[in-house]
Specification:
single chain, Beta-Lactamase, 4 domains, five-stranded antiparallel beta sheet, 19 helices, Sigma54 specific transcriptional regulator, Fis family, Homeodomain-like_sf
Length: 460
């Protein structure tokens, strides 16, 4: 008796004829794809719905048969989508998609036509269809916002330091560890972050950027972690997802992390340790899966000695380090970069002619604003030049002069000279920085103070 019980309780293999009957059920519109999205089975119930017959579809990629299919998303996220509307053969159908797993690993996905009659619940169905279309539109817009814009090929330069940085970036992309990108303002830290994300296994996910220096400290927590409805005055109805939630399955890029306030550093450290966030106004932790890339133009070891940056956070983010060289250390790259910017920024169809003397002036300058400043100088030269020809006269004054004028007018007052010097300093800071907030920080003044001085001197 006990033996028969044990025998009946043991797992039994489903007979092959039953599996064949299930897969080829004429009432069941079923599609099976493997982990690469290649169709491995399509039941006969799909006949006439797609541009290919079930037999012709097998072996093709799902997007070749159904361009708007989301089964590749199901494979990537491992999450089922049940009861979604979809336009097939000019008719709205209700479908389901779910992942197929073995030993905890997604090995494919199944798609199923539910063949519901929308006419029986017309009003509800039309509302669902409308919401689904809006959702797809927003998802497309979100993908555009958080897509990767640059690759390693976008990073120009043949100097040894740049080649070494690109090699390290490629190595960093192969792991899922945190990356810290260090370099002066304008050296291309964000480009490297994009390139690392795009090459990584998370490249199909979102790249969510946060400029820690541009967001006031009191708003940074809600921006990073999100908030619940009613968490504070002015909070959105139904709350808002934070940047860490938006980066789930992808990468979060914390730019200017050296400017993050100490209290927020503690909370970031907890997220890195626990891999979960709590929205402002909530006590329910939510698991998040992300890759971290940080960047800074600050000296973090010095900030640690000053008590302005946590040592434990530094060691958490500093697993893989990329140190980007300033442009003055890559003299041979300066003129090729100027030529490149001339081609992409020029208003004419043909590249501008560059007269002798331009190259020498560019290579003698120290470029404190690095590649960003070089791009701005190139754009200015293209605006003021004539006949699509850039001459030395079209360049701004790049001589390494003191800010104060060497020649003082006979009747110039001290106040007039100081105003002149202040205006030149502010203009230079704006050229070298990526934003007004960064320019204010580099000058050691508040943004409001910078705006007031810009207005005073008539700086746009």
């Amino acid at each position: 008796m006990s033996q028969s019980r044990k025998k009946s309780a043991a797992p039994r293999k489903i007979p092959q004829d039953l599996l064949d009957a299930l897969l080829n059920n004429p009432y069941e519109g079923l599609i099976l794809v493997d982990a690469q999205g290649i169709i491995r089975h399509m039941s006969s119930a799909n006949e006439g719905i797609y541009p290919f017959t079930p037999q012709e579809s097998v072996g093709r990629h799902i997007h070749d048969v159904s361009p708007k299919s989301r089964m590749d998303r199901t494979i990537r996220t491992g999450k089922a989508e049940i009861g979604r509307s979809m336009i097939l053969d000019d008719k709205t159908r209700v479908v389901a998609r779910f992942p197929l797993s073995k030993d905890g690993k997604v090995i494919g996905a199944a798609g199923k036509l539910l063949f519901m009659d929308p006419g029986k619940m017309k009003e509800l169905y039309e509302r669902i269809t409308h919401l689904e279309r809006r959702l797809e539109k927003y998802e497309d817009e979100l993908a555009q916002i958080y897509r990767t814009n640059y690759s390693l090929d976008s990073i120009l330069g043949d100097s040894p330091d740049i080649i070494q940085a690109k090699r390290l970036a490629e190595q960093a992309a192969g792991a899922d560890s945190p990356v810290l990108i260090m370099g002066e303002s304008g050296t291309g830290k964000e480009l490297f972050a994009h390139a690392i994300h795009g090459l990584s296994q998370r490249g199909s996910g979102a790249l969510v950027k946060v400029n820690c220096a541009a967001i006031p400290g009191e708003l940074l927590e809600a921006e990073l972690f999100g908030y619940e409805e009613g968490a504070f005055t002015g909070a959105r109805k139904k709350g808002k997802a934070g940047k860490f939630e938006l980066a789930h399955g992808g990468t979060i890029f914390l730019d200017e992390i050296g400017d993050m306030p100490l209290p927020m550093q503690i909370k970031i450290l907890r997220v890195l340790q626990e891999r979960e966030v709590e929205r402002v106004g909530s006590n329910r932790p939510k698991k998040v899966d992300f890759r971290l890339i940080c960047a800074t133009n600050r000296d973090l070891p010095k900030l640690m000695r000053q008590g302005l940056f946590r040592q434990d956070l530094y060691y958490r983010i500093n697993v893989m380090t990329l140190k980007l060289p300033p442009l003055r250390d890559c003299r041979d790259d300066i003129f090729p970069l100027f030529q490149h910017f001339s081609r992409i920024l020029g208003r004419e169809k043909t590249p501008p002619k560059i007269l002798p003397g331009v190259k020498e002036i560019l290579e003698k300058y120290s470029w404190p604003g690095n590649v960003r400043e070089l791009r701005n100088v190139t754009e200015r030269a293209l605006i003021v030049c004539r006949d699509n020809t850039v001459s030395p006269a079209d360049l701004p004054d790049l001589s390494q002069q003191e800010v104060l004028p060497q020649v003082i007018e006979e009747k110039a007052s001290l106040k007039a000279l100081m105003d002149q010097a202040e205006k030149k300093i502010i203009e230079q800071a704006l050229v070298q920085a990526s934003s007004r907030a960064e320019a204010a920080r580099n000058l050691g003044i508040h943004r409001t103070g910078l705006y007031q001085k810009m207005k005073k001197h008539g700086i746009e």
